[in-house]
Amino acid sequence: MKKMKLFLDTHDVESGTFPAGITKPQFAEFYEQYKQACEAEGVVPLKIFTGVEAGKAFCLTLAEESDAVARAHQRVGLPFNTITEV
Question: Which Pfam families match (predicted)?
Fold first, then answer.
């Protein structure tokens, strides 16, 4: 196994990368699907910071490469603004 790196990805309703009008229970259900997508791509979701009312999310993950994080997002149809190694 390669060394895992820490990534931060961002989402914002204003740029279309966070689902508009989603409720906290809906987001919790969606996040479960995202965690399954992460597992399929070898990504480890560590923590998510979400402002549902503000339409923003910041996700911390471990992965071998940022492309794996991007693929996990694609599996659930969730665009992102940025994925940054931190």
Answer: SCO4226-like (PF14026)
The whole-angstrom separation of Cα 47 and Cα 21 is 22
Please write the tens of the pLDDT for every residue from 5-55: 999 999 999 999 999 999 999 999 999 999 999 999 999 999 999 999 999
DSSP symbol at 42: T
Task: Centre a 10 Å sphere on the Cβ of residue 23 and count the other Cβ atoms it contains.
Answer: 11
User: What are the backbone dihedrals phi and psi of residue 37, each rounded to the nearest 5 degrees, phi first?
Assistant: -65, -40
Q: Which tokens in the block code for residue 75? A: 């599996």
Query: Domain ranges in the chain?
Result: 5-85
